[in-house]
Design brief:
CATH superfamily of the largest domain: NAD(P)-binding Rossmann-like Domain
Number of strands: 13
CATH architecture of the largest domain: 3-Layer(aba) Sandwich
Distance between the termini: 44 Å
Number of domains: 2
Mean pLDDT: 95
Helix content: 25-40%
Radius of gyration: 19 Å
Oligomer: single chain
Strand order of the largest sheet: 3-2-1-4-5-6-11
Shape: globular
CATH class of the largest domain: Alpha Beta
């Protein structure tokens, strides 16, 4: 085993992305620590479980001690993001500046803001108009400024909306697949005839792990491997083929509570609803050209996702 494989990779955040990433890193032969506020109980065999509050300088430094690569996959309740995500950034960035570990950040499309259907590449201007979009853009500029100044080695991997095994809180997650399997209601947001990109959570993991293994990727934004966009109507038709029944679709032309998305979430999400009233098309060709990692075809993603939801106990599925 090489020295790189002996080195410790610390994954901050034990949600779907962090958990999938930790498993991917173990499969690649790395020593892995998975960190959350309480020691994760969903970590695969071979993963060190660690409890820390990485929004504090002390917690972040303890969480990454001994790591050569740190992956920031932390997320918080939607209504707390404006307050908490900058705190997490300050603590994590200070920690890697102290230890010298490389930092791989899982990022969103929010900094681009409304694109009016323009295909999003890494060269798309940042024109965020929402509070959360401007906040994410400010955080990203601080990450890249720290890299340019030589204070830290940082790379950002941007993902479209998640989909895949283990993904619940997504517009293509718990508001869709349980209803599809049981004959219940299935959510469609905004204009369901517009193309919308989704990133397979396993491709998120593979993409971040690849960035973690390639220091030459540092200092910029990359789009993680993302399958070609399809319309919500097309995706729903693909799900119907897999579950063997027509979907009872409920289309929300504007944000309101539905299924796992309660009023508190939807009130906060209202400023981001433009993502469902204009095309959201992500181009990840640069990642594939550079690293040879291709996105999972959408059909294969839906196969795996339906299988995962089908295997859930009925209570967990609802």
């Amino acid at each position: 085993m090489s020295a790189a494989e002996h080195s410790l990779h610390a994954v901050l955040g034990a949600g779907p992305a962090g958990t999938a990433l930790a498993g991917e890193l173990v499969r690649r032969g790395h020593a892995v620590r998975l960190v959350s506020r309480s020691a994760p109980d969903n970590a695969a065999e071979g993963i060190e479980r660690y409890a820390a509050d990485v929004s504090t300088p002390e917690g972040a430094l303890a969480a990454i001690r001994g790591a050569t690569v740190v992956y920031h996959c932390v997320n918080v309740d939607y209504h707390r993001q404006i307050e908490v995500m900058p705190q997490v950034q300050r603590a994590v960035l200070a920690a890697v500046e102290t230890t010298g570990a490389r930092l791989v950040v899982l990022d969103t499309l929010y900094p681009y803001g409304p694109t009016h259907g323009e295909v999003m590449t890494e060269d798309t201007p940042w024109r965020a108009t929402s509070r959360k979009g401007r906040m994410r853009a400010e955080l990203d500029e601080r990450y890249l400024a720290a890299h340019r100044a030589g204070r830290a080695r940082v790379v950002l991997g941007r993902s479209a909306d998640f989909v895949g095994p283990g993904v619940l809180n997504s517009t293509l997650g718990g508001a869709v697949f349980p209803g599809a399997l049981t004959g219940g209601e299935v959510l469609g947001m905004g204009d369901i005839d517009l193309p919308h990109s989704y990133t397979d959570i396993r491709d998120v993991a593979a993409g971040l792990a690849t960035l973690g293994e390639h220091p030459e990727s540092d200092g910029r934004v990359w789009h993680l491997p993302t399958a070609p966009a399809a319309t919500t109507r097309e995706i729903h038709a693909m799900i119907e083929e897999r579950v063997g029944r027509p979907l009872r679709r409920v289309v929300l032309p504007e944000p309101r509570p539905f299924g796992p998305f309660d009023a508190a979430f939807m009130d906060e999400y209202a400023e981001m609803f433009y993502q469902h009233t204009e095309p959201q098309i992500v181009d990840s060709a640069a990642f594939t050209r550079t690293f040879g990692v291709r996105p999972t075809p959408l059909g294969a993603t839906l196969d795996a996702t339906v299988d995962w939801y089908r295997a859930l106990p009925a209570g967990a599925r609802s």
